[in-house]
């Protein structure tokens, strides 16, 4: 593969466009982490993406491990997805009425995801999470929820408590504008620490509507759950009459065809989805047991709606993406390549005398600049952020686009080739030697 060399790396056009954007958009972006605040330097402005690559407005080519923050699991602008989208485009971009594509994608989700018997599509992961919260409260008649330090569930008020990457990257513990009343019922436990959950249940008897978590964390960096922790949550929720929700917006269809719940063999009551399920178009979804989901309007009294929900283009991209992911061996192959990648990066770090730890599950990976293991957000904060910033810049200048924050996971896709991975490891060795 040919990307760029450090000597040829230019950012004149990116700088010009971002300078103008800062006058037009708050911070020059439409989503905070894109602004490179935590790694320093200026963000790169993209021109186009294809397969595992991104091309910027200065002609630089990158191997991309952000993948639009998750959706691009079949590679960017996948030909099969694009062809289906073009065909659908001719039939209209939005109906605001039922279409059969919604049934098709719903059946695919229900087939694949153990906890889902019924699903509601919406337009983002944030919408999915705030809606599922309403379901948990409506179903149980209780108001309090348990979330975990460092887990992100979108930017709705009740979740902006110890919410991981984006918020943390800006150094804001919480966001101004979120009223106390909105977060007063959000109780925070420590990830991988079942005792911290038991304690909250004991102190709030019969008051907890549900527990929500990232079943593999991607928003404090990449953190793997102990299987016993997930099993413990299932037991505690059952014992206390609370609902368990896996927020699989990031992990859904990325760590397994049946999401993290299939991978770990622990079935929640409710699941939120996004990213991959929209194949690069704006989609979110939440689903669960029929008896719970039937509370959602118009089947039941819990209101939730959306002008563009179930949008035919988004459904089409989701259907084709899940079809492609059904190819035999898709996840095994992603696992093999991603393992090679992360092991190569860790070796490059150790060979150059750095403390590093990390890992992957299928197409999701990450590492920290500290001695491991990292099991919680508290552990993650031990990572050397200055070093991460220099690592990020060094890789960028050598044609490797990584998430611009230590507190984000990395993503591979089916189209990353062995050559792309080998190139990345070679550059990792170069950069680790300079840190
Ligand atoms: N939940 C998780 C686990 C996420 O990673 C994200 C986004 O990164 C969200 C929810 C919010 O999704 P969206 O950005 O589509 O609103």
From TrEMBL:
<dbReference type="InterPro" id="IPR049704">
    <property type="entry name" value="Aminotrans_3_PPA_site"/>
</dbReference>
<keyword id="KW-0808">Transferase</keyword>
<dbReference type="InterPro" id="IPR015424">
    <property type="entry name" value="PyrdxlP-dep_Trfase"/>
</dbReference>
<dbReference type="GO" id="GO:0008483">
    <property type="term" value="F:transaminase activity"/>
</dbReference>
<dbReference type="InterPro" id="IPR015422">
    <property type="entry name" value="PyrdxlP-dep_Trfase_small"/>
</dbReference>
<dbReference type="InterPro" id="IPR005814">
    <property type="entry name" value="Aminotrans_3"/>
</dbReference>
<keyword id="KW-0413">Isomerase</keyword>
<protein>
    <recommendedName>
        <fullName>glutamate-1-semialdehyde 2,1-aminomutase</fullName>
        <ecNumber>5.4.3.8</ecNumber>
    </recommendedName>
</protein>
<dbReference type="InterPro" id="IPR004639">
    <property type="entry name" value="4pyrrol_synth_GluAld_NH2Trfase"/>
</dbReference>
<keyword id="KW-0032">Aminotransferase</keyword>
<keyword id="KW-0663">Pyridoxal phosphate</keyword>
<keyword id="KW-0627">Porphyrin biosynthesis</keyword>
<dbReference type="GO" id="GO:0006782">
    <property type="term" value="P:protoporphyrinogen IX biosynthetic process"/>
</dbReference>
<dbReference type="InterPro" id="IPR015421">
    <property type="entry name" value="PyrdxlP-dep_Trfase_major"/>
</dbReference>
<dbReference type="Pfam" id="PF00202">
    <property type="entry name" value="Aminotran_3"/>
</dbReference>
<comment type="pathway">
    <text>Porphyrin-containing compound metabolism; protoporphyrin-IX biosynthesis; 5-aminolevulinate from L-glutamyl-tRNA(Glu): step 2/2.</text>
</comment>
<comment type="similarity">
    <text>Belongs to the class-III pyridoxal-phosphate-dependent aminotransferase family. HemL subfamily.</text>
</comment>
<dbReference type="GO" id="GO:0030170">
    <property type="term" value="F:pyridoxal phosphate binding"/>
</dbReference>
<dbReference type="GO" id="GO:0042286">
    <property type="term" value="F:glutamate-1-semialdehyde 2,1-aminomutase activity"/>
</dbReference>
């Amino acid at each position: 593969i040919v990307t760029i060399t450090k000597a040829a790396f230019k950012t004149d056009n990116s700088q010009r466009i971002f300078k103008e954007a800062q006058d037009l958009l708050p911070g020059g972006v439409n989503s905070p982490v894109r602004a490179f605040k935590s790694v320093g330097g200026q963000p790169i402005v993209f021109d186009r993406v294809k397969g595992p690559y991104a091309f910027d407005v200065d002609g630089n080519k990158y191997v991309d491990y952000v993948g639009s923050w998750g959706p691009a699991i079949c590679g960017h602008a996948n030909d099969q997805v694009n062809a289906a989208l073009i065909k659908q485009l001719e039939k209209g971009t939005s109906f605001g009425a039922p279409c059969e594509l919604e049934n098709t994608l719903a059946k695919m989700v229900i087939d694949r995801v153990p906890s889902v018997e019924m699903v509601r599509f919406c337009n983002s992961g944030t919408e999915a999470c705030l809606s599922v919260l309403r379901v948990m409260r409506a179903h149980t008649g209780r108001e309090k929820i348990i979330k975990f330090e460092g887990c992100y569930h979108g930017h709705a008020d009740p979740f902006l408590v110890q919410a991981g990457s984006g918020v943390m990257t800006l150094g804001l513990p919480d966001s101004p504008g979120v009223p106390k009343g909105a977060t007063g019922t959000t109780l925070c436990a420590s990830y991988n620490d079942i005792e911290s959950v038991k304690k909250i249940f004991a102190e709030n008897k019969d008051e907890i509507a549900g527990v929500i978590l990232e079943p593999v964390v991607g928003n404090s960096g990449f953190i793997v759950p102990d299987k016993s922790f997930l099993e413990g949550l299932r037991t505690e929720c059952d014992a206390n009459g609370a609902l368990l929700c896996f927020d699989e917006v990031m992990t859904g269809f990325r760590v397994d065809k049946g999401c993290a719940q299939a991978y770990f063999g622990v079935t929640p009551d409710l699941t939120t989805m996004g990213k991959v399920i929209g194949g690069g178009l704006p989609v979110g979804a939440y689903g669960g047991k029929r008896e719970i989901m039937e509370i959602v309007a118009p089947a039941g009294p819990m209101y939730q709606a959306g002008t563009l929900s179930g949008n035919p283009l988004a459904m089409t991209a989701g259907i084709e993406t899940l079809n492609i992911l059904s190819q035999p061996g898709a996840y095994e192959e992603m696992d093999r390549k991603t393992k090679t990648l992360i092991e190569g990066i860790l070796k490059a770090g150790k060979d150059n005398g750095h403390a590093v730890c990390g890992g992957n599950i299928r197409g999701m990976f990450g590492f920290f600049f500290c001695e491991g293991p990292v099991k919680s957000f508290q552990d993650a904060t031990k990572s050397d952020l200055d070093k991460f910033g220099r690592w990020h810049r060094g890789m960028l200048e050598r044609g490797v686009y990584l998430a611009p924050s230590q507190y984000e996971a990395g993503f591979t896709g089916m189209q990353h080739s062995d050559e792309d991975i080998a190139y990345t490891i070679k550059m990792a060795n170069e950069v680790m030697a300079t840190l």
